[in-house]
């Protein structure tokens, strides 16, 4: 099976997670696909090497946060630095890599959307009649990230240790086209945030793997509970995501009903368009876009 | 005191949560990190089930594995209505056990396809899907003829049995393995009826029944 490959320079020259180290058996090749390119990942005692199945050429690889990363082109910058990974009072673990039959951009957008909580995560992250998404702020930072702050949502069971419903504070950050993070107030230490970073692997334009990295305060929380909570929630989203039509994310804000396109997702779609990201998207009409070869500063 | 060794995303574990919910039976849950932790292959777990599979249930001194076996045990012991596994109806018991074995076939095909697609299990995906379709075709036909005779459930009874519970989860999750239910209308109607049984609970990936359709 061949998939059209990616022409977006910004994506080709960036790092993407392609495997969870836990899933690799020493010296047993693991095959995966990144932006239409089949890769063979082999972990040995000395190093982890990644080669293209088509040419046999080696591609750049890295190990970080318990994941194996690949860059198909020439890396222009480091993988996103997760500041909370330095804090020793946190669990730092993978939530398990899960393949989803939809564009990774759809996954990022869904992750940003609070509106679906009461309907998809009923009894956990939301419940009727608390369905309204209150206004929040969205800005683009100096690092060119989308930042949504002052997001609040009432949640019956907001975390593995939640004892009762609470109004939860959220901050969202879109860091790269396929990387998004969520910061959520910790029920025990309300001034600190638990962090979930979603590294989405674009397998091809219609398929992705969600690699989640969980940085939760240890206080009162078991690592296993953090992981199982993440999977419980994620598995509720999965069938919804896989039923989205079309599988790719339309960048034209008028392409879909405004219910899903709340302000952060409008911003996300526009931000992708401005950065000439087309892989996994249905781009705007050529006239209004920067063109598929649009350049981006590294 | 009942303890279920459980994994949220497992349809086989869900069978037991579902029956215990229908019966109103209290239990505690020990979460097992099936993925990515593979805790079901850890030494401590292999002592409970040498097959290294979920679910496992412990009730005082009794330790049981296999979802279907556990359904039989729980219903026989705790169902005061004697509907889910009617102990004094040999013909019906035979029928139920026939479909319990069928349910394990659904696990071997539809569940395998889902593990392949979502969690990277190294299975023959085409064989798994074809196998599931073969079973779904048989089940759909069986349910369709049942409807013609006024029967709503898998077995010949006026009420659901553990056979319905055993077949339900991996039918319901089949799309995650790339197995569409579009061509199985009688299965779809039966799934909807299962969701309307009093005490029904969901698992991640299974959604509650929609508003009742006008007849
Ligand atoms: N016949 C068994 C099958 C159980 C089964 O397939 N369990 C899965 C999880 S849902 C499992 O533990 N698989 C691991 C393996 O088979 O190695 C049952 O119905 O309980
Ligand atoms: Fe969600």
Assigned CATH class of the largest domain in chain B: Mainly Alpha
Mean pLDDT of chain A: 91
Mean pLDDT of chain B: 97
- The tally of structural domains of chain A comes to 2
- Domain module tally of chain B: 2
- Main sheet specs of chain B: 4 strands, mixed
Bound molecules: glutathione, fe (ii) ion
Helical run tally of chain A: 5
Essential attributes:
heterodimer, A: 298 residues, alpha+beta, N-terminal domain of TfIIb, Naphthalene 1,2-dioxygenase Alpha Subunit, Chain A, domain 1, 2 domains, 7-stranded antiparallel sheet, 6-stranded antiparallel sheet, 5 helices, 15 strands, 16% helix, disordered C terminus, B: 215 residues, Glutaredoxin, Glutathione S-transferase Yfyf (Class Pi), Chain A, domain 2, 4-stranded mixed sheet, globular, binds glutathione, binds fe (ii) ion
Note down, in words, how this protein is organized.
The complex is a heterodimer of chains A (298) and B (215). Chain A has 298 residues and is α+β, with helices and mostly antiparallel strands. Chain A folds into two domains: 9-71, N-terminal domain of TfIIb; 91-242, Naphthalene 1,2-dioxygenase Alpha Subunit, Chain A, domain 1 (Alpha-Beta Complex). Chain A contains five helices and 15 strands. In chain A, strand 14 (249-250), helix 5 (263-274) and strand 15 (281-282) form a beta-alpha-beta unit. Chain A is globular and about 55 Å long. Chain A starts with 8 loop residues before the first helix and ends in a 16-residue tail after the last strand. The relative contact order of chain A is 0.17. With 215 residues, chain B is of the alpha+beta class. Chain B has two domains: 2-78, Glutaredoxin; 90-195, Glutathione S-transferase Yfyf (Class Pi), Chain A, domain 2. Chain B contains seven helices and four strands; from the N terminus they run βαβαββααααα. Chain B has helices spanning 11-23, 43-48, 67-78, 90-119, 125-148, 162-172, 185-195, and strands spanning 2-6, 28-31, 56-59, 62-65. In chain B, strand 3 (56-59) and strand 4 form a beta hairpin. In chain B, helix 4 (90-119) packs parallel to helix 6. The relative contact order of chain B is 0.14. The interface between A and B is medium-sized, with 24 and 20 residues. The structure holds glutathione and fe (ii) ion.
